[in-house]
Amino acid sequence: MSVGMMEERGGEASLMGGKAIIKIFDVVAACGTRKSGLYHLSTAPMSDVAAVASLQLWHERLDHVNDADVKEMIKNQDVERLTCNFVVVKYICEPCMYGKAEMTPMPRVVGVCVTSWLHLVHSDLGGPMSEPSCGGALYFGTFTDEFSRWTDVIF
After folding, report:
1. Rounded to an integer, what distance in angstroms lies between the CA atom of residue 112 and that of residue 132?
2. Under 8 Å CB-to-CB from 69, ≥6 apart: which residues?
3. Alpha-carbon distance 122 to 151, whole Å?
């Protein structure tokens, strides 16, 4: 598959953490995992893409609840007018994938024993944010005291 040709035809590829997501016009058409240096993709027949998109749409509308719960809601008619023609096609929700990704733990500092407030403070900066804060800030900082675990966020 040529990524360049796919891009010219409205496709998009996302590769991260050993997982691949292929979208065509913002609809997931294939996903896969990396094995032995190559990505192995599972593709959905194009006739099934509409059903996947419908299930994906409800997954997103219901605050990223898992697919089994969406199917259960449909089956039990828990939500009025919740309908979906779903098939056994797996798609990967990009925000859910990033949200469940594991972070590498921070290495412990050997020999440092914090015995009082403000002896060791961790800080981090974030931004720019897509929407400014109420005060108009696009960046924020966090400060965490190692001893008390008190955390403060400053915009």
Report:
1. 38
2. none
3. 9
Q: Which single residue is written with the structure tokens 């796919």?
A: 6
Model pTM greater than 0.90? no
Residue with tokens 């058409």: 29
For 25-68, the pLDDT digits (tens) are 677 777 788 888 888 877 654 444 444 446 777 777 778 888 78
Q: What angle do CA 29, 35, 36 make, to 5 degrees?
A: 140
Count the alpha carbons within 13 Å of 69 in the hemisphere toward its beta carbon: 9
Q: How far is CA 88 from the centre of its chain?
A: 22
Number of H helices, E strands in the chain: 4, 7
Look at residue 108 and give its three-state secondary structure.
Answer: coil
